[in-house]
């Protein structure tokens, strides 16, 4: 069962999303060569606390940090620590908050200094694929219309779509129904209805789509060691079309 939100609930989720977007905007500004992934986590925690919100990821199924910080071949769920970010890296930051019982979730991937042209294109294609997926989040469309628009664009640009991880519904919990794959044929899955709120999050790789989990039990990396990019927004399906809540 996919929960439908009332107008009041969507307004509260929008407030949560606005707070999260403001935190992300500030966190992005410190990303440069020489900082550590833990520096990103520390600032994220401070800013979320100042906004009187709670970090949605910390403690979730045992995850030990506020932010997921994934570098280069790391796809998602990178655990912050002493790793120093270097010139030429690409860094994915995934943040979620709980504000007064309303969850929001977003992710961006950033180039650090002078970055290889193929990695820059990877980031741009991932960002564009999210925008295309969001365009399909309309009442009356099928869920996999989102999935297909992402996959067809990404593969048309010569990159691959991660299969192991998917987007999700969100609202009074961090993860709700439905799961939202970033691949698949169009016209399948449940019909989208006004009041659904979705966390749409393409994860795309420079090489093959296969992934594996590292020894820490959390961090997903590309099997072939190629770079990966990740973008995410929390989006409401409305009668007027999709509305991005995390901006």
Descriptive report:
- The protein has 247 residues and is α+β, with helices and mostly antiparallel strands.
- It has one domain: Creatinase/methionine aminopeptidase superfamily (Creatine Amidinohydrolase, Alpha-Beta Complex).
- 28% of the residues lie in helices and 26% in strands.
- It is built from four helices and 15 strands.
- The strands form four sheets. The protein has a five-stranded antiparallel β-sheet. Strands 1, 2, 4 and 5 form a four-stranded antiparallel β-sheet that branches. A three-stranded antiparallel β-sheet has the order 3-12-11, with no helix packed on it.
- β4 (90-99) and β5 (102-111) form a beta hairpin.
Compile the SSE list and pairings.
Layout lengths: L6 H22 L8 H14 L3 E2 L12 E4 L2 E3 L13 E10 L2 E10 L5 H19 L7 H14 L3 E2 L5 E3 L6 E5 L16 E4 L2 E3 L5 E3 L6 E3 L5 E3 L2 E6 L2 E4 L3
Antiparallel strand pairs: 1-4, 2-4, 3-12, 4-5, 6-10, 7-8, 7-9, 9-14, 10-13, 11-12, 14-15
CATH topology: Creatine Amidinohydrolase
Largest sheet, in brief, is: 5 strands, antiparallel
What is the percent of helical residues?
25-40%
Query: How many domains?
Result: 1
Q: Structural class given helices, strands, pairing? A: alpha+beta
How would you summarize this macromolecular structure in one to three sentences?
The protein is an alpha+beta fold and 247 residues long.
Features:
4-stranded antiparallel β-sheet; alpha+beta; Creatine Amidinohydrolase; 247 residues; 5-stranded antiparallel β-sheet; globular; single chain
């Amino acid at each position: 069962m996919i929960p439908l939100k009332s107008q009041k609930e969507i307004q509260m989720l929008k407030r949560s999303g606005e707070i999260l977007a403001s935190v992300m905007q500030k966190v992005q500004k410190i990303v440069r060569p020489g900082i550590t992934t833990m520096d990103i986590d520390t600032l994220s925690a401070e800013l979320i606390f100042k906004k009187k919100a709670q970090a949605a990821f910390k403690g979730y199924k045992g995850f030990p940090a506020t932010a997921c910080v994934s570098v280069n071949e790391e796809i998602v769920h990178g655990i912050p620590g002493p790793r120093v970010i270097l010139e030429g890296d690409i860094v994915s930051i995934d943040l979620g908050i709980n504000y007064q019982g309303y969850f929001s979730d977003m992710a961006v991937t950033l180039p650090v200094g002078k970055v290889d042209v193929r990695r820059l294109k990877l980031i741009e294609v991932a960002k564009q694929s999210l925008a295309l997926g969001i365009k399909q989040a309309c009442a009356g469309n099928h869920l996999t219309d989102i999935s297909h628009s992402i996959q067809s664009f990404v593969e048309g640009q010569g990159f691959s779509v991660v299969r192991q991880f998917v987007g999700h519904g969100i609202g009074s919990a961090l993860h709700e129904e439905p799961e939202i794959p970033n691949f698949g044929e169009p016209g399948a899955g449940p019909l989208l209805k006004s009041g659904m709120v979705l966390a749409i999050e393409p994860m795309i790789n420079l090489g093959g789509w296969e992934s594996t989990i590292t020894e820490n039990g959390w961090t997903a990396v590309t099997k072939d060691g190629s770079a990966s990019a990740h973008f995410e927004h929390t989006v409401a399906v409305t009668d007027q079309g999709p509305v991005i809540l995390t901006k």
